[in-house]
Amino acid sequence: MKSLLIVSGLALATLMYAEPWELSVDANLTLTQNSYSDNWVGGEAGSVSWVFNSNSLAQKQLTAKVYNTNTLKLSFGQTHSQDVITKNWLKPVKSTDLIDFETIFRFTLGAFVDPFASGRLETQFLDQSDAAKERMFNPMTLTETAGVAKVHVKQEKREWSSRLGFGLRQHINRDVLIDSINGIRQTQTTNDGGVNFISEFTTPLAKERITFNSKLSLFKAVFFSESEALQGLPNQDYWKAVDVNWENIFAASISKYIMVNLYMQLLYDKEIAVAGRFKQTLALGLTYKLV
Description:
- It is a single chain.
- It contains one helix and 14 strands.
- The two termini are 31 Å apart.
- The chain has one domain (2-35, 45-289): Outer membrane phospholipase (ompla), Chain C, CATH 2.40.230.
- It is mainly beta.
- Helix content is 5%, strand content 62%.
């Protein structure tokens, strides 16, 4: 965690005092609403769904030998629904939630590959997994990675790069209920480390009215802090399986302020679910490029 704080501090310092930067901030908001009169028959109920997404990028060649890239993904959405019988509005249900910040320092030495060091924070705004206690910014995964990077394609609006290195991860879950009778809670922390591979590709499509972005992340752990505690259990070797996170985004601009966004994510983490998990979101809404 200290390593991530140091890397993040360096990134923040360069963002504050170095100019100019190549900046990009895309934000969009989608909203769906329906309502019914009190005498409507058929069992339907009103609902309101909204989702906010933003993708931010700040990158610059800091010196002749150091290139810094910072990315921030934010996403949050809720669905508000009426009770079918009473028509009273129920407590909103979260539909999406993500905070993903990564900073990368790539050392451009002119070789076939470039050394790099990176730090990444993954969490969410609101953890509602425990009905008795909502927790902000929980759980958290911190990743520090060092290795080599290669930019395969670098054009004005098209880029393909990949990174291979050794990463350390810290998984932090705060205020976990371990004794429901006495209400005892504690913070649970696990650590693992292994080989980390990331490939990112961005390109315009259809006369640059559509942007396609794909990011594939693979992590193969070689050690896990809780491996001894799992000995003899059916899931004792689950931590050794490769973790996969494959994200694909199609963003189409209908007009200056109206967009269609298709997001698809494939996740595989055997410790969470033996089968892979898939998420798909199709949204039509308002968009605005701040930079």
